[in-house]
Amino acid sequence: MSNVRDGDPFLPRAWVLLAVLAAFAGCRDATGPMSEGTLASTQMARVAPPRAPDKRATDEADGDSSAVISTHILTQDPGAPPLETYQASFWVYKDKATDVTVNYQPSAGKSPGQPFLWFDVPRGALQAGGAGRRLARRDSVYVTLTIDPVKFLVDFQPSGVLFSKRQPATLVLWDENANPDLNGDGVVGDADRVLEQQLLIVYRTTDRAHWHHLRSMKGWSSPFVWAALEHFSQYAVSF
């Protein structure tokens, strides 16, 4: 099952992110927080390159065509283990931090399974509830995330939830169990490895809307991609 945690203590975002990424990457011997500069140089070495806009497309739902992209969504390897859950519901609070993790089912004799998703909301990040509803200081929102069983795609509900631009939520997705034949030519080669280095997180507001890219960070030594979230949408890993 997914793991949900919440609590009152506030930690700087870089420290929290480093702790979670280090744990999931197998760096279990980390004993304390590191500086944001160290984090940037060791865990997130490259920003995924911007994708060129698709000039032929428009997105009336979002009212923004400048970031519309032609999108290929990453898929799970046919031999990947199933996830422990494909849907998780939990409370997100305005006055305290919450995070949820979803792993793959562990192989025999191993626990926990490989990581797939980490979603984190720091204290004070939640700004508005469903449909943009204003929230009081101690209000909360009941959130459901639903994961596509084949694609690296996650849908967050309710729609209209907003996070602080100065202190947004964080979404991390691990691609270690992705289908390595990204270009679909039947051969895993250099072309696929080039595409793998271009992975980034994209979003759309509805099933019929176009995908838009987010400024994403790609793991250097560990197979993950992450981005800051300012609102609820459908999010996916694209190349």
Short recap of the structure:
The protein has 239 residues and is mainly beta. It is built from 3 helices and 15 strands.
Please specify the SSE layout and strand pairing.
Blueprint: E1 3-7, H1 13-24, H2 36-42, E2 46-47, E3 87-93, E4 97-103, E5 115-121, E6 126-128, E7 140-147, E8 153-157, E9 162-163, E10 169-174, H3 190-196, E11 200-204, E12 212-213, E13 216-218, E14 224-229, E15 234-238
Antiparallel strand pairs: 1-4, 2-13, 3-7, 4-5, 5-10, 6-9, 7-8, 8-15, 10-14, 11-12, 11-15, 13-14
Structure characterization notes:
With 239 residues, the chain is mainly beta. It has one domain. Helices cover 11% and strands 31% of the residues. It has helices spanning 13-24, 36-42, 190-196; strands at residues 3-7, 46-47, 87-93, 97-103, 115-121, 126-128, 140-147, 153-157, 162-163, 169-174, 200-204, 212-213, 216-218, 224-229, 234-238. A 7-stranded antiparallel beta sheet has the order 1-4-5-10-14-13-2, with no helix packed on it. A 6-stranded antiparallel beta sheet has the order 3-7-8-15-11-12, with no helix packed on it. A hairpin with a 5-residue loop joins strand 7 (140-147) and strand 8 (153-157).
Task: Trace the largest sheet across and list its strands.
Answer: 1-4-5-10-14-13-2
Number of domains: 1
**Strand coverage percent:** 25-35%
Alpha carbon gyration radius: 18 Å
As a percent range, the share of helical residues equals 10-25%
Alpha-beta classification: mainly beta
What composes the largest sheet? 7 strands, antiparallel
